Amino acid sequence: MNHHDLFITRLEKELEQRNMTMNGLAKISGVTQSTLSNMVNRPNAVPRLDTMYSIANGLGMTFTEFFDFPPYNQRPDGSSAAKQRSKWEELGNALTPEERERVRRILMGNDKGELK
User: Fold this and answer.
1) Digit-coded pLDDT (tens) for 59-108
2) First to last CA, the chain
3) How far apart are CA 71 and CA 48, in angstroms?
4) Do 29 and 53 contact (CB within 8 A), yes or no?
5) Helices 22-29 and 49-58: angle between axes, nearest 10 degrees
6) DSSP line for 97-109
7) Facing residues of 74 across strands?
8) Nearest 5°: CA angle at 103, between 78 and 65?
9) Which residues contact 82 (CB under 8 A, 6 or more apart)?
């Protein structure tokens, strides 16, 4: 499957899950109906990044969330970025609020990480 087909398949799946039409997406995303039609019907049509961003935003998703499916979330070694993120979220949920705050400060560069 090529990138165009992957993009269209994802778009159609998201529209179906929301019981939304292309026309409805056009209204809430700010992307014209003709642009959406061209993207779907012309396999050579390459949407601009800002257009894809607007589509994702119209679907209530971030750009990253929209493309969070194979093969786009697969690493060269075959591992899944989504699975890795899930493991980190699980670890984060096991932390106390104080530990979460400390990790946040360390990641933001506001903590030297010294043990007390």
Assistant:
1) 999 988 898 888 888 777 777 766 677 777 788 888 888 888 888 888 78
2) 54
3) 20
4) no
5) 100
6) HHHHHHHHHHHHT
7) 80
8) 40
9) 68, 73
